[in-house]
TrEMBL record, chain A:
Top-level taxonomy: Bacteria, Bacillati, Bacillota, Bacilli, Bacillales
Entry keyword set: ATP-binding, Nucleotide-binding, Transport
Top-rank taxon: Bacteria
Pfam family, one: ABC_tran
One Gene Ontology term of the molecular function aspect: ATP binding
Family of the protein in this entry: Belongs to the ABC transporter superfamily.
Protein name: ATP-binding cassette domain-containing protein
PANTHER family in alphabetical order: ABC TRANSPORTER ATP-BINDING PROTEIN, ABC TRANSPORTER ATP-BINDING PROTEIN NATA
SMART domains: AAA
Domain ABC transporter: 3-230
TrEMBL record, chain B:
Key word Cell membrane present: yes
Stated name of the protein: ABC transporter permease
Lineage: Bacteria, Bacillati, Bacillota, Bacilli, Bacillales
Pfam family, one: ABC2_membrane_3
KW Nucleotidyltransferase (keyword) present: no
Domain ABC-2 type transporter transmembrane: 19-385
InterPro entries in alphabetical order: ABC-2_transporter_component, ABC2_TM
GO cellular component: plasma membrane
Residue stretches spanning the membrane: 20-38, 181-202, 227-253, 265-292, 312-331, 338-358, 364-385
């Protein structure tokens, strides 16, 4: 167990930004922190980084507090993208890397490697303001990982990137994890979290609403989805016992069912009626869980 | 290297390399040199502008002694005998002559003169001529009275009134006038230095916040450390500029010292007092910078957009300006009691105390007390500013009012 968030609460006056948050992140794992805007993700990250202290509770990295003495082993990519617009990529990254305890020569060497890897070696002597937003983001990502941190915090790392660059960055993140970096990241994009994280926590208005292993969360959620494509009218399925939601698609319907039993009953009902082109039982998506949990909390 | 110095040198070097800094410093140095070479230039253009004055000597005996006398008074005046008024007028209209003097004996057989010229706005020529003519008249009278030249000299010696200041080390009137010019220039240097670099700090902080680099910076170096490293980095920049300014000024003035002596520019001569004044200027410019830079840094940390910087630091700019105006007023009356009073108020003292030490002989304890108070304020402001800064840099939104200082302090306290 490497990073421990123990019963952490943060209050600003009467406003509770984060309410009794609890989780532990094992080493070499990727942890996803999900939540709507204003859920308290950034505040949580700032507390992990030691920029602000929790009102209650403890945050420990290998049993120690995180402060400026640990900054060389921590990397941070803030949600708001930002670099010095007037500085050259070289000067900027070397400066930031030196603040993380690297020396000039190795920082420059690493930077060149990373630029090669992101297929943009020509950016070394360009000013940041001359780069496109997506490319600025790559540079900023390099700034957060150049010193080979052991704990990496990524706040919305993939927002605003095209699919090719998302893949490029995702590969880099997976590579870092395989090399032993513990990564915490937040995202609005559920498919990225599903793809990358073993553990996750969904926050809503400062409180954790779902927390645990992705598989366990899905299993305990219980509900499953069924996709049906058939040559006949499927309207009768809407009121079928065990169906909680129904959505019409171009070729058929997607149903949310209470469990595998309900799915089996539906299949039995369908077969005598005619030709069924497709019948698929699917795991619930994280998106469904998120919408239901956060949506329920809104109500 | 220590993170403090990484930030310090990064700030210093990246600012040093900017075009705006290089250009403004270059222009300033050119101005200093131009000022130092001005007397020489004026001399050069004045060289062939000798005024020629026609003399219509009716008694016939005055011209030669008058010429000798006038030569001694003003060597740029050239006298030339003319035949009659018509000839003189012709020479004047062809611009070969400035004016002419008719010398005649009046009813009492005393020498008198009438000066005629196109314009009588130039007051030095008639004055010099009158002086010369008086001397000639005295010597004529003396020879009539059969006085020896020694007796004449005795008669002409004025009674001397010597001025002695009761206060020890007090500056003489002449020194005071000399000091005024130098103090005025240095006051201006302090004023520009404080305004320019303090607002540079505020803009720099706001830029880091706007571009959100701040979030990365504060996660690797403590905000307070970063703030002071930045202030010191810019201070180094300001010192670089001041040293350049003073040393180029010093050498340029040294080069032209001869031309300056006795002229309007004599105040720039470097006597012992001037050196002390310059050292004081340096100290006060630096202390003033640190005071206002600390203020500017935390004010800058409160805004989220660079455009909001100017309104935010406006009250601070006003404070500097008020100090400057009080000091400018004090130039004519440095011992006024409200000048003495304000010279202890930390926000004004960098300029007003400097004015006093430059113009008067201020007791050492007063200077020390003023500087001590200033340093204390800087420290207090540093501690307070550090706290606001710590919260301010994490605060985003349309914050540009002073109420937000409270909010920032709260964030900082919770942090």
């Amino acid at each position: 167990m490497v990073l421990e968030i123990n019963n952490v609460t943060k209050r600003y006056g009467n406003f509770t930004a984060v309410n009794s948050l609890n989780f532990t992140i094992p080493e070499k794992e990727m942890f996803g922190l999900l939540g709507a805007n204003g859920a308290g993700k950034t505040t949580t990250f700032r507390m992990i980084l030691g920029l602000i202290d929790p009102t209650e509770g403890k945050i420990r990295w290998e049993g120690k507090r995180i402060d400026y003495s640990t900054s060389p082993i921590i990397g941070y990519l803030p949600e708001e993208r930002g670099l010095y617009p007037k500085l050259k990529v070289r000067d900027q990254i070397v400066y930031l890397a030196r603040l993380r305890g690297m020396d000039k020569a190795s920082a420059l060497k690493e930077l060149v490697n990373w630029l090669e890897r992101f297929k943009v070696p020509e950016y070394l002597d360009k000013k940041v303001e001359e780069l496109s937003k997506g490319n600025q983001q790559k540079i900023q990502f390099i700034a957060s990982v150049i010193h080979k941190p052991r704990l990496l915090i990524l706040d919305e790392p993939f927002s605003g990137l095209d699919p090719v660059n998302v893949e490029l960055l995702k590969d880099a993140v997976i590579n870092l994890r395989d090399n032993g970096t513990t990564i915490v990241f937040s995202s609005h994009r559920m498919e990225h979290v599903e793809e990358l994280c073993e553990h996750l926590c969904i926050m809503h208005r400062g409180s954790p609403v779902v927390e645990g292993k992705l598989k366990d969360i899905k299993r305990s959620y219980g509900k499953k989805n069924v996709a049906v494509h058939a040559d006949f009218d499927l309207a009768f399925l809407d009121g079928f016992p065990g169906v909680t939601k129904s959505k019409t698609t171009t070729e058929g319907r997607i149903l949310q069912v209470t469990g595998e039993d309900a799915a089996e009953n539906i299949l039995r009902e369908l077969v005598p009626r005619g030709f069924v082109r497709k019948f698929e039982l699917m795991e619930p998506s994280l998106n469904d869980i998120f919408i239901e949990k956060v949506g329920a909390a809104y109500e | 290297m220590n993170k403090f110095f990484i930030v310090l040198f990064h700030t210093y070097l990246s600012k040093l390399k900017t075009k705006s800094f290089l250009v403004s410093t270059g222009i300033m140095l050119l101005l200093v040199m131009a000022l130092a070479f001005l007397p020489k230039a004026i001399d050069y253009f004045d060289k062939d502008k000798k005024d020629t004055i026609g003399i219509l000597d009716k008694p016939g005996t005055v011209y030669e002694p008058l010429k000798t006398q006038v030569q001694a008074i003003n060597k740029d005046l050239k006298l030339e005998q003319v035949e009659n008024e018509a000839a003189a007028k012709k020479l004047i209209s062809s611009e070969k002559m400035t004016g002419y003097l008719i010398i005649e004996n009046d009813a009492d057989q005393k020498v008198k003169g009438i000066y005629k010229a196109n314009s009588i706005s130039n007051s030095t020529i008639p004055g010099d001529l009158s002086l010369g003519l008086s001397a000639v008249k005295s010597s004529i009278a003396a020879s009539e009275l059969k006085l020896t030249p020694e007796q004449l000299a005795q008669l002409n010696t004025p009674a001397a009134v010597e001025q002695v200041a009761l206060e020890k080390n007090a500056k003489t009137e002449e020194e005071l006038n000399q000091a005024r010019g130098l103090v005025y220039i240095l006051l201006f240097v302090i004023y520009i230095n404080v305004i320019m670099y303090a607002s540079m700090i505020a803009t720099e902080v706001a830029t880091e916040k706007t571009s959100r680099v701040m979030e990365i910076l504060v996660s690797s170096i403590s905000p307070v450390q970063q703030m002071f490293a930045k202030i010191c980095g810019i201070a180094l920049l300001s010192i670089t500029q001041l040293v350049l300014f003073f040393s180029v000024g010093y050498f340029a003035v040294k080069q032209n010292e001869d031309a300056m002596n006795g002229s309007f520019f004599s105040f720039l001569g470097f006597g012992e007092t001037s050196i002390t004044t310059i050292v004081y200027a340096f100290v006060f410019a630096l202390l003033g910078y640190f005071l206002y830079a600390t203020l500017a840094a935390f004010l800058g940390s409160m805004v989220s957009r660079v455009e909001d910087v100017q309104p935010m630091i406006m009250p601070m700019t006003m404070l500097v300006m008020i100090g400057f105006f009080i000091a400018a007023f004090g130039l004519t009356n440095p011992s006024a009691s409200f000048i003495t009073g304000t010279s202890f108020i930390p926000f004004f003292s960098p300029m007003i105390m400097f004015l006093r030490v430059g113009m008067l002989s201020v007791p050492v304890w007063q200077t020390a007390f003023s500087i001590g108070l200033l340093v204390l304020t800087i420290v207090l402001l540093g501690v307070f500013g550090g706290k606001v800064y710590r919260g301010g840099v994490l605060m985003y939104g349309s914050s540009k009012s002073f109420r937000d200082i409270k909010k920032a302090l709260q964030i900082s306290k919770n942090a």
